From TrEMBL:
Signal peptide location: 1-24
Matches recorded under SMART domains: TPR
Organism: Parvibium lacunae
Keywords: Signal, TPR repeat
Any Pfam family the entry gives: TPR_1
PROSITE patterns per record: TPR (PS50005), TPR_REGION (PS50293)
Superkingdom, natural source: Bacteria
TPR repeats: 71-104
Full protein name: Tetratricopeptide repeat protein
Amino acid sequence: MQMRQSFIQLCLVSALSTSHLLQAAPFDTAPAAVTAAQSAYEIGKQAALDKNWSLALKELKKAEAAEPNNADVHNMLGYTYRWQGQLELAFQHYRRSLELNPNHRGTHEYMGKAFLMNKQPEEAQKLLANLEKICGKSCPEYKSLEIAITNYKPQ
């Protein structure tokens, strides 16, 4: 009896510890397409963070083709274009991201930084105010944009 209880407890612990694997993905396509879209997004995002712009654009455009209504994909496309100095394209993707998810914290932060690059600190300040409403002054996106605005010097 004791052995059976231990076995049942082990099964429950195992099931609970792997339940996160069953959570739905942010993509709403068929499972095979989800895997391809998620993979392209993850590769593109990491490439962007590594400043490998050509790979980032290649993979993020694949993700966009598979999931054109994914705010995360548009946010990272905006990020990639912003870092390449292509602000018009960056703003297009940031706007699309916010159309899809008006509370996307990362987009508010990154778009605010793009506004600073575009010498529009008042627009960045508006996005900072939005972030305060969305997540408060202690969230990382708020803090990051606040620092960028504080350190902003028009050139």
